[in-house]
Amino acid sequence: MNISIPGILLGLGAKCLLSWALVFLQRNHICRSFVGVFSVSLAVVDTALTLTFTTIYIDSDGHVFLLDLQLTRYHTCLLAQIFGQVYSALQWPVVVVASLDHLCTMSLQPSACGAKWIVHSVVTVLMWYLAALYVFLLSDFIPVLEDVPHHQMHQCWVFHTTQISQIAMLLFLVLGCAALHAVCSTRLLKNPPLRGQSTDHSRTHSRTNVAGQALRIFLDTWALFLILLAVLLLVPMEIPAYLGLNVAWLCLVNSFLIAVLFCVVCPTSQLANGSAAVPPDSFCEWRLNLAWEQRTEHDCTK
Fold first, then answer.
1. Cis link prior to 236 (omega < 30° from 0)?
2. CA pair distance 172, 181, nearest whole angstrom
3. What's the rounded Cα separation, in Å, for the pair 10 and 109?
């Protein structure tokens, strides 16, 4: 797709401001999760890219030099394409690493997660490095530049991202399956259990209730964003690759992964006594009502 250079600059500037605003909003626990540390690194990279892009564009005569290399508007288009490819290459790895990080947080004791920010920082730097190596050495990335003098360039060809659509489709598929499972489980659990099956019935009820509450908390917070995401999928609208990976998107993915792990891991015994370590989330308040579980266990012991 062709986008004007001022349009690219405006999009990068808005993305940069949004990134730092969300980082500031999560400042109290930004280093407690991989998503938080990676969000800071993304905001820093966006800021550096925006400042470089602005400097080159303003000085249209080409008097900007870097290591004896004259930077022109050709390089602004090249930077937009390169970073777009790097951002696209990072989409799925970030989701996978964030899932493993949340799984570790919910499975281990809180005391075992004290200095994880060091590991998060090392993994973040390594992921940026590997993504850049992939784009330059392993991918089939070929820059697309106009055959005109640099001072006559007014727009750039940029690639669109497909990873956003893939992750969004997976997200809606999981939400649909979770909602269907919750409805079916609710109907099945209406039948009273036999005396010898009371323990299994209580465990099934426990898992279903936690999953239902996690799904409801997630939808109450992100419903409007999900509607917008569904509209983008149905149109369909091409999203420039340099805008695809942003902190707002990472916040949505972070909440979604926590909700999924609540459904899968379901540490109800730890949640009941308050010893479970819940991954940090600045948007969803993950407080589950487990009073019913204590009443059920009390009834089963009679």
1. yes
2. 14
3. 45
Give the whole-angstrom CA distance, residue 224 versus residue 213.
19
pLDDT (tens digit per residue) in 98-138: 999 988 887 765 544 457 788 899 999 999 999 999 999 98
Separation CA 144–CA 216 (nearest Å): 45
107-113: long-range contacts at Cβ-Cβ below 8 A with a sequence spacing of 24 or more? 107/265, 107/267, 108/277, 109/275, 109/277, 110/275, 110/277, 113/32, 113/277
- Alpha helices, H only, the chain: 5-25, 34-58, 73-107, 116-133, 163-188, 198-234, 241-244, 247-264, 268-273, 291-300
| Strand (E) or helix (H) holding 301 | none
Q: Rounded to whole angstroms, how far apart are CA atoms 214 and 75?
A: 46
CB neighbours of residue 173 within 10 Å: 10
Where are the chain's structural domains? Answer: 2-157, 163-300
Prediction pTM value: 0.85
Instruction: Tell me which H or E stretch contains 143.
Output: none
